Amino acid sequence: MRRSPAALAATALAACAFLTACSDTDASADGTVDVLASFYPLQYVVEQVGGEHVTVSNLTPPAAEPHDLELSPAQVRGIGTADLVVYLSGLQAATDEAVSAQSPEHVVDSAEAAEADAADPHFWLEPTRLSMVGDAVAAELSAIDPDNAADYAAGAEALTATLDGLDEEFSEGLAQCEGATLVTSHEAFGYLADRYGLVQEGISGINPDAEPSPKRLRDVRAIVERDGVSTLFFERSLGPKVTQTLADDIGVSTALLDPLESRTDESRDYVDIMRANLEALTTGLACD
């Protein structure tokens, strides 16, 4: 069972009564908690939960491919000195190695918090799983900074409400699309497809760098023709080349579907980008 953010914060406060590690000295010199997030969706969660009490840095530069992240020596040292590190084990080898080597005192592994499948790390494209990370972040921030535990609990509750609302939008928007085939440039949308009754078919597999084999391209073509697929979805970071070539060959359209691994437009946040994804899906899928 999921515990509420308030209950998690209360547990952290009780622990802090007995642990000197929960003292105010854990906070940054400017009075905020210094948090490192390994890529954008986790940055979004920390910002929503921590609010004015946190300073968040993202290890993955804007528009960069998180899977290929390489860390500078300064970034590796920063993982050891940050008040809190929020990362996703299994997504970025460099971050996994740095967390293991530096052993930061306060860590949230979002894979554990979201109960993600080790074979597929892309849980953040399913909004209710991302809210589970918010609960874990609230608990850890409360352990570091107990004076503001109530604010962290409230931030997590507000985040959950926002993401639950987004989940409802997807459920309603895709209700007529149940069973539709979702053809994507790589298999980043498994959690989303499972949540909303779609069938994902990736041109490539989980690894976005893997080139599809000629056999896989023939298989996808057969799936498109069998299921009456009208749109193939590509990702900004990978570019449309392979997807567009296949679509042109079959005679169908293409559309952008953002896996939200990084953010290229600072004016749009996680919810904005997910809503754009919903619009692309409802427009491009073969729905009854």
Automatic annotation (TrEMBL):
GO biological process annotation, one example: metal ion transport
Entry's Gene Ontology molecular function annotations: metal ion binding
Keyword Transport: yes
Gene3D superfamilies, sorted: Nitrogenase molybdenum iron protein domain
InterPro entries with a match to the protein in the record: Bact_metal-bind_prot9 (IPR050492), ZnuA-like (IPR006127)
PANTHER family hit by this protein: HIGH-AFFINITY ZINC UPTAKE SYSTEM PROTEIN ZNUA (PTHR42953:SF3), HIGH-AFFINITY ZINC UPTAKE SYSTEM PROTEIN ZNUA-RELATED (PTHR42953)
Name the UniProt record assigns to this protein: ABC-type metal ion transport system, periplasmic component/surface adhesin
Organism annotation: Sanguibacter keddieii (strain ATCC 51767 / DSM 10542 / NCFB 3025 / ST-74)
